Amino acid sequence: MTFGEKLREARKEVCLSQEQLAEKMCVSRSAIAKWETDKGMPDINNLKVMSKLLNVSVDYLLDNEEKISFNEIKEAININDYEKNGKCRDKKDAACYENNKDANAIYALVRNKKMTKTEWIIDFIIQPGVVDLLDQTKEFAGFYLVEKGTKQYLVKVTNEFIVTNELAEKVEPKKFVVGNHQYKKLYQIV
Questions:
Q1: Does an H or E element contain 60, and which?
Q2: 43 and 84 share a domain?
Q3: What does the pLDDT read at residue 162?
Q4: Is residue 136 located within the same domain as residue 53?
Q5: What is the CATH number of the domain that holds 36?
Q6: Are 49 and 117 part of one and the same domain?
Q7: pLDDT at 8
Q8: Burial class (CB in 10 A: 0-12, 13-18, 19+), 128
Q9: Closest Cα to residue 3, out of 71, 76, 59?
């Protein structure tokens, strides 16, 4: 992912528009747009402010080591067309399995938000698990690690879409991190 793509993704994760982020950073909206399209880079002071506002590290924004490649496939589905069977515990499992029948392995995953120190404190004070619950309710989906030959794919299944991203580097199904989320293996389907 480029700096601009990471910035746009992180901004959307915290539910801020370009205008809102620009206002909080005391810069113009066009500066944010320029950064998100990789037509410019913020100075170090703006990077520091940006990382705090977006709950990501400066290293994350600037690091070129990719976990997800640019190969993303988004297919429309109707989740009601799938029925749970065999090791498929629900319709999302079945949709992932049906669309990846040639897989060597399919692992159902649980996704958790990597929390900042502030989020940990809020989570502890309000109710343990509330920050992660809020993150999960924003995007009600099933997540899967699919292995085909030497390639691995992170698959997200919603009621309307299957989104498949090829991973740029091999991960261990037991536990891995992509972006601001940690994934853990729940069970194996195939």
A1: helix 58-62
A2: no
A3: 95
A4: no
A5: 1.10.260.40
A6: no
A7: 92
A8: exposed
A9: 59
Residues sharing a CB contact under 8 Å with residue 2, sequence separation 6 or more, in sequence order? 38
Q: Is the pLDDT of residue 98 over 90?
A: yes
**Of 179 and 176, which is predicted with more confidence?**
176
pTM for the structure as a whole: 0.60
77 in the same domain as 56: no
Structural domains counted in the chain? 2
**Could you tell me the two tokens for 65?**
């080591």
Tokens of 119: 């989020």
- 36 and 112 inside one domain: no
Q: How many CA atoms lie within 13 A of 1 on its CB side?
A: 21
Residues spanned by the domain of 86? 68-188
Contact 112, 182 (CB under 8 A): yes
List 112's β-bridge partners, or say none: 182
The tens digit of pLDDT for each residue in 12-69 reads: 989 999 999 999 999 999 999 999 988 888 988 898 999 899 988 887 787 655 555 5
Residue position matching structure tokens 């649980």: 110
**Residue where the block lists tokens 């991973």:** 167
Q: Which long-range contacts (CB under 8 A, 24 or more apart) does 79-87 make?
A: 79/157, 79/158, 79/159, 79/160, 87/187, 87/188, 87/189, 87/190
